[in-house]
């Protein structure tokens, strides 16, 4: 009897394996392009998982899909005169999202707003006093990075999020150096000062400024702290044009934004955790930003770098491979 049962289980197991293989082949190579586009754009915007796309698809297929899914570059710069800081809290709310932002609690510095949508969870932190925001680097910058938890505690931060992408001197992901332009306290810490780039930073008047310019020009125009990244998602109230799924796939995201009334938004979306949160694409990020009336907004480094720290403790659910699930970072935006 036992032998017969074992013989029966074998064909059932083979049938299940065949079915799973057919499902995989259907989604990967079948007529529905959504899944193929999602897999390729998600893999190709990571540092360590590009091999997934290269293993399953030809270079020509990858190239064609990336050409169909992208964010159209926004060439305009922030008009800083549009940002008018509100001195008194408002009591009139146009929507539930406005009430979430403007109805302050006992903490008058920041407010945490949970975010949840289809396949994602995350947080928006409204910062009411942008003068308390600064960009800080790892204590060991140039040699190795620090996890956000350590950066936050070292700098006595109330709120902290990851900032730059990173380059590594030893190729082992230690967050030693920021990628691209990195300006701190009006000084260029990294990047070619004369190369035009997408610069995201705060000027002396605490206005979030998105600029397509050089680091030297940015400093001449009053930029105090800045990083190079993108894409820009909203500039002067105008959202970016998205082709296909935006070309960045679905992943954890970190975004920095400012409303017209001066309130700064830190947005962190958890991801790569099936059953909890997969992350978002660029379309959904823009939708979230528009709900909360972001006037200027840019994507920052995401993926395993995405992390939110509140009062020195990990608040989000990062997805790196360390014990704390955080990655070593070169720098961070903090609120003190």
Give the oligomer, counting copies of the same chain as homo and different chains as hetero: single chain
Q: State the helix count.
A: 8
**Main sheet: strands, sense, barrel:** 7 strands, antiparallel
The overall pLDDT average reads 90
Question: Summed up, what is this model?
Answer:
This protein is of the alpha+beta class and 336 residues long. The longest helix is centred in the first third of the chain and has 28 residues.
How would you portray this structure in words?
- By secondary structure, this protein is of the alpha+beta class.
- It has 8 helices and 21 strands.
- The protein has 2 domains: 70 residues, no CATH class; 256 residues, no CATH class.
- The strands form 5 sheets. It has a 7-stranded antiparallel beta sheet with strand order 2-3-17-16-18-13-14, with helices on one face. Strands 4-21-5-19-20 form a 5-stranded antiparallel beta sheet, covered by helices on one side.
- Helix 2 packs across helix 3.
- It is globular, with a radius of gyration of 22 Å.
- The chain starts with a helix and ends with a strand.
- The relative contact order is 0.18.
- The mean pLDDT is 90.
């Amino acid at each position: 009897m036992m032998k017969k049962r074992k013989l029966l289980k074998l064909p059932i197991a083979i049938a299940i394996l065949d079915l799973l293989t057919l499902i995989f082949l259907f989604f990967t190579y079948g007529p529905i392009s959504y899944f193929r586009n999602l897999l390729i754009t998600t893999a190709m915007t990571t540092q360590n998982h590009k091999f997934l796309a290269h293993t399953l698809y030809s270079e020509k297929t990858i190239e064609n899909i990336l050409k169909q899914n992208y964010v159209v570059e926004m060439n305009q710069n922030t008009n800083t005169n549009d940002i008018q800081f509100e001195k008194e809290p408002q009591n009139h709310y146009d929507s539930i999202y406005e009430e979430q932002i403007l109805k302050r609690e006992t903490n008058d510095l920041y407010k945490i707003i949970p975010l949840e949508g289809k396949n994602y969870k995350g947080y928006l932190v409204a910062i009411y006093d942008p003068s308390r925001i600064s960009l800080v680097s790892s204590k060991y910058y140039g040699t190795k990075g620090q996890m956000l938890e350590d950066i936050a505690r070292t700098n006595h931060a109330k709120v902290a999020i990851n900032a730059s992408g990173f380059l590594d001197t030893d190729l082992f992901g230690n967050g030693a150096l920021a990628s691209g332009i990195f300006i701190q306290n009006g000084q260029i810490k990294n990047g070619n000062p004369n190369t035009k780039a997408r610069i995201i930073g705060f000027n002396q008047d605490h206005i979030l400024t998105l600029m397509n310019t050089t680091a030297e020009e940015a400093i001449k125009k009053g930029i105090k702290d800045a990083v190079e990244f993108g894409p820009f998602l909203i500039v002067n109230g105008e959202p970016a044009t998205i082709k296909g799924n935006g070309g960045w796939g679905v992943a954890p995201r970190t975004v920095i934004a400012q409303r017209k009334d001066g309130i700064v938004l830190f947005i962190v979306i958890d991801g790569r955790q099936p059953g909890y949160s997969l992350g978002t694409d660029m379309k959904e990020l823009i939708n979230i930003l528009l709900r909360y009336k972001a006037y200027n907004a840019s994507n920052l480094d995401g993926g395993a770098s995405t992390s939110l720290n509140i009062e020195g403790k990990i608040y989000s659910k990062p997805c790196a491979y360390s014990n704390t699930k955080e990655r070593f970072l070169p720098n961070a935006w903090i609120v003190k």
